[in-house]
Write a structure and sequence with these properties.
This protein has 482 residues and is an alpha/beta fold. It is built from 13 helices and 15 strands. Bound molecules: 6-O-phosphono-beta-D-glucopyranose. The site of 6-O-phosphono-beta-D-glucopyranose has 3 residues, from loops.
């Protein structure tokens, strides 16, 4: 049965109007060109940036402002709908400063630049750089007095590779900035689909009463990609799926799906609720509850070890699946199946809530209700499987999908949302250190299992390693689309 789609009425956008100075470290890099500058353009074009706000690109490349803008026009503009004239108008906001983040001397010029723009109400340093630069950069900023009350520092993921390295970074940065000034980014927290999960749970009376082990049989969270590692082989090979996707994106989705109702949507209330959920997770037993995989050559698609700059003997996992249990009264006994992978058969970012069938059903053929929440901006939908009576025999039913498309007209990208939150000095959509450290601590046994066992091979373009099929309990199976 075709899903009836209902479109919600778009709400007027919040306007963010603080005069700002946004310093993009790593401005010539891939993230800046593909995501950050395009997101800033979109915010500018939508009138969401203060007219006097400035973007100051900083990176090691000894470029002039003109050379930097030429690079941005070639590499960032294609990720927007801007005409050359519209892009040029946006570029009025952009300056460039060659700066080696590892060289404290270079920060004197930065400090002078920033002092030159005395009217900034909000100064944001976005560190799109390798994590080993986070602490030295913060030290140099503080040495020049660039850590006052109106400054924020944004730290890109990955924040360390395990609990210890994450703590070291957090301790180091905390010497120079207060926790409320430190914005640890996870771009999934900028996705409207995930915000919608909060609205679904706490803005309606329908779901929350059912959101527990009396009514829910299992929950699946899938972040699946059809792409391989592309040009990022060198970086990815030292990271792998668990650190790239599970420790951050999947853990955050898990938190928002399963946490108790926060006291409010304020930064600390929200993050307290997420932290409590991570603390309630039962210890992971990787021998029973984890499967890792690596894609291999199939149907003309390269295997992982044939990718550019990936060593042929690499054991890095490109797929991870976990079964988690939460030891609190709401969720005791409910499996949470978590998985992510590259080069899979479909692209998806979704949460699947499988409900229990009614006791003593009068309709034995009816399928259990199921709610599928899709989070990607280009597929931001809810689908609720209901059973409806068919006109034939008295007990016959057929499943119907009640569909709901949550997309308003213009959908800001996750980075646009997060950059605006950072410029406004709001921390709710960023991670607090205790959450991230708790997530690393919970994943420690899985990291250890990875070190000891090679990943299972799976053909590129498939649904992942067959071994992962043993994780769902009898009666549950991995969801592969409606
Ligand atoms: C990033 C990972 O954080 O998220 C990438 O480093 C991954 O490996 C990306 O491809 C996926 O994000 P999205 O928004 O496209 O689902």
């Amino acid at each position: 049965m075709a899903a009836p789609f209902i479109r919600p009425v778009p709400k007027p956008m919040q306007s963010e109007q603080k005069n700002f100075d946004l310093i993009l470290f790593g401005a010539t890099g891939d993230l800046s060109m593909r995501k950050l500058l395009p997101a800033l353009y979109d915010a500018h074009a939508a009138g969401r940036l203060h007219p006097k706000g400035r973007i100051l690109g900083a990176s090691r490349s000894r470029l002039t402002r003109g050379q930097f803008l030429a690079k941005a026009a070639a590499e960032a503009r294609p990720h927007t709908a801007a005409t050359p004239a519209e892009w040029d108008a946006f570029c009025q906001r952009i300056d460039y400063l060659p700066l080696d983040i590892g060289n404290p001397q270079d920060f004197a010029a930065l400090a002078a630049e920033i002092r030159g723009k005395a009217d900034s109400e909000s100064i944001v340093f976005y560190l799109s750089a390798a994590p080993q630069f986070f602490v030295p950069a913060c030290r140099s900023l503080a040495a020049h007095g660039l850590n006052g009350a109106n400054t924020r520092v944004v730290l890109e993921k990955p924040l360390g590779t395990d609990l210890e390295s994450c703590r070291l970074i957090n301790d180091g940065v905390a010497q120079y900035f207060q926790e409320r000034q430190i914005l640890r980014i996870d771009h999934y927290l900028g996705k409207n689909g995930l915000h919608n999960l909060l609205a679904l749970r706490f803005g309606n009376s329908l779901f929350e009463p059912l959101w527990n082990n009396r009514h829910i049989r299992s929950v699946q969270i899938t972040l699946a990609e059809t792409l391989g590692v592309e040009a990022r082989g060198e970086f990815y090979n030292g990271i792998g799926a668990l650190r790239d996707m599970v420790q951050n994106h999947i853990m955050q989705i898990l938190c928002l799906t399963a946490m108790e109702r926060p006291q409010s949507l304020d930064a600390d209330a929200l993050r307290d609720a997420k932290l409590q959920l991570i603390r309630d997770l039962l210890p992971l037993d990787p021998a029973a509850d984890a499967v890792f995989g690596q894609y291999t050559f199939s149907d003309g698609l390269k295997g992982y070890t044939q990718e550019h700059k990936v060593p042929p003997e690499s054991r890095t996992e490109t797929y991870a699946a976990l079964r988690a249990f939460i030891g609190n009264p709401r969720w005791a006994g409910v499996p949470f199946y978590l998985r992510t992978g590259k080069r899979l058969s479909r692209r998806a970012a979704e949460i699947v809530i499988a409900f229990k069938p009614p006791a003593d059903t009068l309709f034995p053929a009816a399928l259990p209700n199921r709610l599928v929440i899709s989070l990607q901006a280009d597929d931001e939908t809810l689908h609720l499987r209901l059973n409806v009576k068919t006109p034939d025999g008295a007990q016959n039913t057929a499943p119907a999908e009640l569909g709901f498309d949550t997309r308003p007209g213009r959908r800001p990208s996750a980075y646009e949302t997060l950059l605006l939150e950072a410029l406004a000095g709001r921390a709710a959509l960023f991670n607090r250190r205790d959450e991230l450290e708790a997530a690393w601590a919970w994943l420690a046994p899985a990291l250890e299992a990875l070190r000891q066992n090679p990943p299972h091979p799976y053909p590129a373009g498939s649904t992942g390693p067959a071994a992962a099929n043993s994780l769902p309990a009898a009666g549950d199976a991995w969801f592969e689309g409606i």
